[in-house]
């Protein structure tokens, strides 16, 4: 089992889009995937169709989500909290959902060091059940990011290559070196950076010919980081498939799809297939 | 001078859209406005046209942004760091921009209590220069939110009224009561909550007739909070005006507009005019 965290401290660079569609594409290719949402904003939870309720009283995520994995002392807890996506992708994916309550639990979790490594221990117990675990993270430097980066073996850093994403990288790297210090102590190798993944890249030809190469060059000049070959372009279909709904009586219910399910022949779907191949190759699979 | 913070810990509920367009509408009505971006993701800075650069070396925000207001011991510092928006709105607005570097500075700022109240003191020195100050905040509970909520007199809580926004409210209220405790110590009144502002509300008639009233009712039943009369609907034009660009040679440069500038006769613009009237009335202006 290999575990990949998707992280950048710059928000809005496509972390969730990448996490959910990479998971979907890997699952379609026959790999057994677990997707973990560690962001209190729960975008991956929504985008994989686990938030089909419109009213607080129908919220079935409150009592069974990723915060319970961290809080519970039961090491065989993951199977209890996993749920299958519902109409998002065929085959469906196993997901550990997040919840807005993670914000409230943050100060409690910060008090005890063992909370930070519970996910590491618990993932070991499901090693036989999954081939690849993908973890979506918050665009910040909080305890949930820390938990994700202890649990992961590999890191993908999505970036739109714009100045702020580039200037956020020294903070990401400083964070990773602190993470690696503690990983050594718990007998884990350094986090392996699969690379910066260019994401939300404009398809405008002037941009691609002039701005994009310059932004890539500026990135290479300022940081000693690999850039992945795959590119995730900014495409309307990627938001369309997340915004799908179904009408049930008087209600319009969220019914998101993976891009591979919604528009399998689209350029966006092809780009995710290419990313999947690159990831599998880098993981030696 | 009255200061309004726009805050909710649930992200994606329209904080930035509300901050920038409320500021624009107030400025158009002849009020002297200062907009402060206290979110490291710098969405308000981008959406008011202060991020017109595409490459790191052209970044003119790095050395003069809101983090310097907090760090500097010079109490007459605000005029040095303010800049006018550029094509965003007529008349243009004074903005204190943010920067991704705020993430890196967070641990330094957390060490000294006086950083948390610098904005309070510095805003007093520009009391004659502005009628209304609007502060955009991060969707979290970090030092920048704390700084914003000490500096503000009033609070608007944008909410899409969905379950997670509703369930995030107890954490918001707990935070505010801690904020008020310290405000009392520095001689400030409790933060006055202008209300929950329904935001990103679907215009679908079934939704408006059935789901929206139930969500409002659920909110009223669970929290003793006023709901504002204004409603900001989810409208395509609101993202269109932020995504405007101009072509300059080989480059496509961001050139965002306020909705009042871009589509003054649109329903969205009208909704912001109505919000402006409600806010002015509640501020006794």
From TrEMBL, chains A, B:
<dbReference type="Pfam" id="PF13614">
    <property type="entry name" value="AAA_31"/>
</dbReference>
<protein>
    <submittedName>
        <fullName>Cobyrinic acid ac-diamide synthase</fullName>
    </submittedName>
</protein>
<dbReference type="InterPro" id="IPR050678">
    <property type="entry name" value="DNA_Partitioning_ATPase"/>
</dbReference>
<feature type="domain" description="AAA">
    <location>
        <begin position="1"/>
        <end position="181"/>
    </location>
</feature>
<dbReference type="InterPro" id="IPR025669">
    <property type="entry name" value="AAA_dom"/>
</dbReference>
<dbReference type="InterPro" id="IPR027417">
    <property type="entry name" value="P-loop_NTPase"/>
</dbReference>
